[in-house]
Hints:
Blueprint: H1 6-20, E1 27-32, E2 35-41, H2 44-47, H3 54-62, H4 67-70, E3 73-79, H5 83-91, E4 96-101, H6 109-114, E5 118-121, H7 125-137, H8 139-145
Parallel strand pairs: 3-4, 4-5
Antiparallel strand pairs: 1-2, 1-3
Helix pairs in contact: 7-8
Amino acid sequence: MSTSDPFMRATIDEARAGLAEGGIPIGSVLVHDGKIIGRGHNRRVQQGSAILHGEMDALENAGRQPAAVYAASTLYTTLSPCAMCTGAILLYGIPRVVIGENQTFLGEEALLRERGVLVEVLQDRECTALMRDFIAAQPQLWSEDIGEKD
């Protein structure tokens, strides 16, 4: 185990679950008052979805929450959030995001910071290895997931 943070551990477990289902290994959890209230992983492949990235799945699984809950929550994710997930973070006013790694993909961290979100990047080796191995094995699927043109 490369991390002792139980919330990042849960996030990595979600990423591994997604990979085991034949999907992309990106996981996320939403934490409020020291408890996970939503967890998820990238399910675009499994569900044939256009939007179910790990962060979106965690938010969906948390269910509808009052604005005060989002404003006092932390979103954990194994990978730097893309533009879509960043938009959801900003829309719901989540003040803190903890990212497993941003070596394999650098999302919209600058925008999050510019808008006042506390962004912490752990550069977790396990998160990086999961993505590097996946990208090497499935480059076309990865490109589709992040919206790269052929």
